[in-house]
Amino acid sequence: MKNIIETKKLCKTFSNGGLQQHVLKNIDLEIREGDFTIIMGASGAGKSTLLYALSGMDRPTLGEISFCDKEITKLSPDELALFRRKNCGFVFQQTYLIDSMSVLDNVLCAGLLNNNDKKAVTAKAHDILSSVDIKEELWDKFPTQISGGEAQRVGIARALVNSPRMVFADEPTGALNSQTGKDVLDALTRFNNEGQSIVMVTHDITSARRGNRILYVKDGEIAGECDLGNYVSGDKERHEKLRDFLAKMGW
Description:
This protein is 35% helix and 27% strand. By secondary structure, the protein is an alpha/beta fold. Strands 6-7-8-3-9-10 form a 6-stranded mixed β-sheet, with helices on both faces. Strands 2-1-4-5 form a 4-stranded antiparallel β-sheet.
């Protein structure tokens, strides 16, 4: 499969009171098209920092990132913002929906930033909301009038409305109960099965099982990798393989 993202000697250093903290250390990494890549690791290992660097939301201190064969580390802030808008979708632990806008308008707003054909964007928004099981009677509701699980699925619709090359998800089920979290994971899995490339940070083994590729970050480096293959519900061997891998990583 083609690589969407490649990094070379990726480093990220933060300064705090004159002290330097090396959060990412010389990471060479390839993210393949069509993969559901999971980034795991202990708190403070650098997994979210890596996600933000890969997506262009944060600049590395050193190293290169190529995204769709374009070196994004050399882009200006405005060029980088435009690149993210066209190529990336984002799903966070908090949905960051705009409370003063309806469910539908939250999705439309993201779509119209890239495409001024309102009729086409509206049709796409309707389709994508339906595909994440947001019923039409909820489209005119405000984010405060729907459940947390519904809001997160609206967030997924917003992330996908522009047909991004990559969806980046940072702990998307972290604030949800088990059932609503499963609904969100089911939606992400379904889109991945349809070809959507996803990179997701999680600390939850149930969420991690949805990925086909597990990267374990330890002390700012990729300490190990596990190939799980395509997700199949109820696959006990998959769960055991992941658990054994995480045990070897010291998780």
